[in-house]
Specification:
Helices cover 35% and strands 22% of the residues. It has a seven-stranded mixed beta sheet with strand order 3-2-1-4-5-7-6, with helices on both faces. The N and C termini lie far apart (50 Å). The protein is of the alpha/beta class. Helix 7 links the parallel strand 4 and strand 5. It has a single domain (3-203), classed as Rossmann fold (3-Layer(aba) Sandwich). It has eight helices and seven strands, in the order αααβαβαβαβαβαββ. It has helices at 3-11, 14-28, 55-64, 78-85, 97-106, 119-123, 144-151, 169-177, and strands spanning 70-74, 89-94, 111-114, 134-139, 155-164, 183-190, 196-203. It is globular.
């Protein structure tokens, strides 16, 4: 894309930019159109109880989540509610105090921690836990590249690390090349936010020998 079209693109109204990006993603992933039904049942409230991921990603996690799984997530919200409702023990980090209050009210069973928007403190929130502690680590908040690198050792062998929005330019390289040796599965589709986005699951190898 040349400089002039890029400047013009940035001057488009936000909804038009979003749908232009959606169209580009759908051209690359045409089967994602099958997930468009989420737009007709969208609910962005903190108490909606459905993660802000595409339906394919939610189905994949549903197949692999077990009651009692320990989960750490950067970025609380409907995913926190959904995980807790499915029997997971959730520790979540949130920088927005208003959002934290809403999620805490809806999901008192989760351990939701207020961390200010300070990169050092935010990324380091997982450091108090030993390596191999969590069945699932979710990177869906701020400072995602740093959180991915910091969270990977905390995943149990055979566990999952989830990185949302790996279609975004700043995360695409991570989605392709991060965590060598880990199995990877990516799912693209509409989210309740009306974006077409990709969520990538990394599975840590089992210990052998």
């Amino acid at each position: 894309m040349t400089a002039l079209p890029l400047r013009l693109f940035r001057r488009l109204p936000a909804p038009l930019r979003r749908w232009t990006e959606n169209l580009r993603t759908l051209i690359l992933h045409p089967s994602a159109i099958a997930t468009i039904g989420v737009l007709f049942r969208r609910n962005l409230a903190a108490d909606a109880g459905v993660p802000w991921w595409n339906d394919r990603a939610i189905r994949y996690l549903t197949e692999h989540l077990r009651p009692g799984d320990r989960v750490f997530e950067w970025g609380s919200g409907s995913s926190t509610v959904w995980l807790s409702d499915h029997g997971a023990a959730v520790t979540s980090v949130e920088h927005n105090p208003d959002w934290l209050a809403k999620v805490t009210e809806r999901c008192p069973a989760a351990d939701i921690r207020a961390i200010p928007d300070n990169a050092g403190d935010y990324v380091a929130a997982i450091d108090q836990f030993r390596d191999n502690t969590f069945d699932i680590v979710i990177v869906d908040g701020l400072h995602r590249p740093q959180c991915l690198r910091r969270g990977a050792p905390k995943v149990k062998p055979g566990g999952l690390l989830i990185l949302d929005d790996t279609d975004r330019p700043q995360l695409a390289r991570l989605g392709r090349s991060a965590l060598p040796g880990w199995q990877k599965a990516s799912f693209t589709g509409f989210k309740a936010t009306t974006d077409v986005r990709e969520t990538t699951f990394f599975r840590r190898p089992q210990v052998t020998g």
